[in-house]
Specification:
Length: 85
Amino acid sequence: MSATFLPSVAIEQGWDKRTTLINLIKKAGYGGEINDDFINNVNVLKYKTICVKMDWKEYERKKRDIFGFKKNTKHVELTDLIQSD
């Protein structure tokens, strides 16, 4: 079983660590009892996000400069755009 939230979700919802874990466990589809012993045995992978603001023209230029993509290509990894500067 697994589930994920963007790192900002817990902050936006005002959740503490325990509440976040309970919500992740429920999101993963677990229907049993969630007690302290269960929570203490959950494996967690923590990650960070990076927010970048750019207009569409800048996005298209970076995409083209990095990958040589055509104008209508839609998918580019954000980390590739950030690391190019």
